[in-house]
Amino acid sequence: MSPFDPTDLLAGPAGFGFAVLLIWLGLCVLGILATYWLIRLAVRHGTKDAMLWQARGMPTKAEKRYRVSLALQEQRRSDLGR
């Protein structure tokens, strides 16, 4: 008699154990795919940042955006004062 005979008393627990292993395997595959997706997303965004940096002429310092916004605020204030 084989250990997985449906008429055997161990068939139920063995089938349950097999189902648990299949669920565990599915969760492992989902975890691996999620990790792959996150790494791919990070590499894609890093590549985009590098391409933008190269397109701007590879500056050594980041542009000061807050100064531009302060200048625009001053311009708006002067436009409203007219």
Proportion in helices: over 70%
Structural class: mainly alpha
Q: Mean pLDDT score, rounded? A: 80
State the low-pLDDT regions, or none: none
> What's the tally of helices?
2
Q: State the separation between the terminal residues, measured CA to CA.
A: 98 Å
Most strands sheet: none
Succession of helices and strands? HH
Quaternary form: single chain
As a percent range, the share of strand residues is under 5%
Number of self-contained structural domains = 1
Shape: elongated
Radius of gyration: 31 Å
What is the total tally of β strands? Answer: 0
Could you explain the architecture of this structure?
The chain has 82 residues and is mostly helical. It has one domain. 76% of the residues lie in helices and 0% in strands. The protein has two helices and no strands. It is elongated, with a radius of gyration of 31 Å.
